[in-house]
Amino acid sequence: MLEVDDVYKSYAAADAPALRGVSLRAEKGDFLAIMGPSGCGKSTLLHLVGAMDQPSKGRVLVDGRSVADLGDDELARWRRQKIGFVFQFFNLLPTLTVLENVELPRLLDGDNGGTCRERAQAMLDLVGMGTKSRRFPAELSGGEMQRVAIARALVNEPSLLLADEPTGSLDTENGESVMRLLAGVNRDLGVTLLLATHSSEAARHARRHVHMRDGAIEALTENPDVAASV
Ligand SMILES: Nc1ncnc2c1ncn2[C@@H]1O[C@H](COP(=O)(O)OP(=O)(O)O)[C@@H](O)[C@H]1O
Ligand SMILES: [Mg+2]
């Protein structure tokens, strides 16, 4: 469902390219951890896969479609419907309640009927935040905010979930619990999951490990722990 084909990315402000010939494939339901030190290109790769940015060279196909072929309006809709994003700093809107934050991607897609609220509440139940739907983000712990962000990322039933250092702002215990949630979502909903992380603890949950260095993939390994338990 995901094909990254010899992708290069250069930023105008930088001298060395952030990605130098990256190729990668993922099947539906796959769970890949993109690993490597800070600056190796993990976030850049996720941005290109999520169509937040375009490659300088090479192509990215999601469900057989090249994002380079979509116009701006179509691209925004396609991104909302196909891709869910989870960020290190949650990116919840502080003036909206938990429920309103999760509803937002559906409202943007024109769903303003009762199904919108129902669907958002169901997602909050799924991530264990069902009873805190009327709170504001500032009234939650970091781990709870990340759960809400995961509910928001899933509300449009994306085929691809991209998580960029989702445990980066959390303590060990909350980080582990967020990773368990993401792994459960991958397993139970069949959503393809790409995790960018420099934490080997977080990557432990992934089925495959993509080791990056200096903008290139150094090695791709199966995770024996997960392979055995599936
Ligand atoms: N918007 C940008 N403009 C210029 N350089 C960037 C930009 N984003 C990332 N880079 C550079 O690209 C390289 C890869 O960055 P990034 O993908 O963020 O790495 P990682 O997520 O693995 O830490 C780094 O050298 C970084 O400085
Ligand atoms: Mg990064």
What does this structure look like?
With 230 residues, the chain is of the alpha/beta class. The chain has one domain (2-229): 3-Layer(aba) Sandwich (Rossmann fold), CATH 3.40.50.300. The protein has 8 helices and 10 strands. The strands form 2 sheets. A 6-stranded mixed β-sheet has the order 6-7-8-3-9-10, with helices on both faces. It is globular, with a radius of gyration of 17 Å. The two termini are 20 Å apart. 40% of the residues are buried. The model has no long low-confidence stretch (mean pLDDT 93).
Topology readout:
Blueprint lengths: L1 E8 L9 E8 L4 E5 L6 H8 L7 E6 L2 E2 L5 H11 E4 L11 H11 L5 H13 L15 H13 L5 E5 L7 H18 L2 E6 L2 H4 L4 E6 L2 E7 L1 H6 L1
Parallel strand pairs: 3-8, 3-9, 6-7, 7-8
Antiparallel strand pairs: 1-2, 1-4, 4-5, 9-10
Helix pairs in contact: 3-4, 3-5, 4-5, 5-6
The structure holds adenosine-5'-diphosphate and magnesium ion (MG).
The tally of domains stands at 1
Percent helix, as a range, is 25-40%
Strand order of the largest sheet: 6-7-8-3-9-10
Outline type: globular
Indicate the structural class.
alpha/beta
Low-confidence stretches: none
Please count the helical segments. Answer: 8
What bound compounds does this protein have?
adenosine-5'-diphosphate, magnesium ion
Number of strands: 10
Beta-strand content bin: 15-25%
Largest sheet: 6 strands, mixed
Averaged pLDDT: 93
